[in-house]
Structures
1.
Amino acid sequence: MGSAGAGDRAPVGPEGAGGRTAAGAAEAGGRTAAGAEERRPDEGDGPPAADAARLRRERRIGVLRRAERVLARPGFLGTLRERLALLDGVAELYDLDETADIYGSGVVEALEERVAGLLGTEAAVFFPTGTMAQQVALRCWAGRTGSRTVALHPLAHPEQHERKAFGEVSGLRTVHITREPRLPTAEEVREFEEPFGALMLELPLREAGFVLPTFEELAEVVEAARERDAVVHFDGARLWETTVHFGRPLTEIAGLADSVYVSFYKSLEGFGGAALAGPGTLVEEARAWRHRYGGAVFQQFPTALSALAGLERQLPRLPEYVRHARVVAAALREGFAAAGLPWARVHPAEPHTHEFQVWLPYDADALSEAAVRQGEETGTLLFTDSWRRGAAPELAFTEVSVGAEGLAWTAQDVREAVADFVRRLPESGEPGAPGRHG
């Protein structure tokens, strides 16, 4: 562990296509198969659009639950019985005859120790939410650096999906070093015109397409921040799945930063919760602020046990998901090319994690309808997430996640599913169709 940027224009889409990213599409978030934590703009803000969007979402989720074949089926959509089944077998992970936790004792302490060990930090502290964990982390660093200014990407989760909590609740001020749909470079950090006390890096940057720098680039960015006497905090909600792209173990990745936040419910499929990891003195201060923020929950044993289960069962499988996501992405590109679409993009072309974006030149509603009808009529749901509007007319994107069920898909399965999906799109000249056949 180490020592102790401007404007609001959304970045363009993949490869400079002019399409707005998911973050550029709205400030409120959405429940998605890939991300699962935010309400999306296409799901409406008021009648009658809200009613139509709600019905689309309910229909899509119903199909997702019933579909025979999907690339990933998010656990959070399961029934209560199905969710409780996540705790089956946890007696092998923790002694269930021990007294239940009280305000962070027992099983919660065991989870904190496990996380600190996995990340190679001195300590870790459990939080009920990542929003709270990161506010506390940056507030603690502000007290130590003497600066309440946090440099982060405008597409970062606190800027897009937390109702300006950094400023409204924690008194922090944010600046944006770059607006490109990627993490900042070392040169951009060094040349940024304003001072800042902390640099926050979301790894991967979800709204730009779950993108990551190389490990060498990340190390250079961290060093550039340290040259400015700033601390570095990793928003590692999805840090667990970065090891394949970086080619480094979690301890080496986390070791670049002064503090790291990780989530237990995204890729690990736990019931919820997060952890803040870092130096022991920071973690102890964070415990005090957790209490002040209302995060000292009386008992958290179901969530803690589900997190331990995720670390035991899901974490070892994530590299396999990442590698297969690259097979799926290549097959999607091949399938769209064979279908003769005038323009289609998988972004990144080779996914950095097991999640990525797909962009198509169609109306978002037309794409969502085609996806749902494919699931209803064939039992195969290729695109489980909603399609959302880009910045340009007739340009939309969706997020694709590859999980355990996706491992059964061959490249040919994907290509065939793409062909079937494209056949369900409007022909040229129909509403929502930019001209599929040229």
2.
Amino acid sequence: MTVPLDPFPASRRSVLQAGAAAALVGSASLLAANAWSQPRKLTFAWSQAGFCLAPVPVALERGIFEKNGLDVELLNWAGSSDQMLEALATGKADVGVGLIHRWVKPLEAGFDVKVVGSIHGGCLRLVGAKAAGVTAELGSLKGKTIGVSDLNSPAKQFYAIHLAKKGIDIEKEVEWRVYPADLLDIAVKKGEIQAIADGDPNVFLIEKRNPGVFTEIANSAKGEYAERLCCIVGARGEFARNDKARAAAVVRALAQASDYVSENPNEAAKIYSKYAPKVAVEDLQKLLAELSYKHHPAGKALRNEVEAFASDFRNAGILKKSTDVVKFANHVSLDVLA
């Protein structure tokens, strides 16, 4: 959706704080009874490769979806975010989850998908090779080459925002180079890249097999973005508008499952481990324990965070300069809990 330019009307902090406390989906607000005598079916698209989406299988296997009146069929989605959003918009799935960094740009194009909830805070990291002179300061990346798994990856988009805020031209003063995710450290050893922007568990595993080689430059679970959403819940527009009760049940179920993961990371890792057989359970337990699963805003707080991300993306040149971020957030977000 492209609309006339309207300068961001408030600071990011004031936007995010407005009404946030009242709008967060917490455990105390998750006990709404369902009026349905039988669980209602829906198709849920997700990528089982994303460990941070552990609340999805947790909700399924611990009966949390069912307790909220839902009969959920999981659809493992291996395609791009654009393809998932198209699948949602065209009714091939009712609900899906993904990283907001991948969704903002496609949503600008006009897919009829509404952001209705969220699951957790950050899971993206930026690390640099000490031997290449990279330090914990973003400025040390000027003139360097950053390895990414693809040019539209969440980590690439997210850290492009950070670099732009530091006054670094993300197109001219750094180079982005694509490698298979599990070969990024090999590219570092060959001197082809000096830093890696990716998500866990990949960065975690890279550091584990290369002790002392990397320094952490940025982590989306720390600092300014520590209490900001990362993975969002999207529903096809018709479903979200015309069946708010069922959409709200999804949001509640995922918030409950996220709380469970936060409080029981070891058990959650065991549930998720069947979807990631190459990652040791103890590594998954450590990773899940470090994520912010208690942060899953809805309603106005969710809309405010979508607006803040859209503003960041516009300022970094990822969204069109003509995009009105206020109208964009109002258009793509829907409060199904109201």
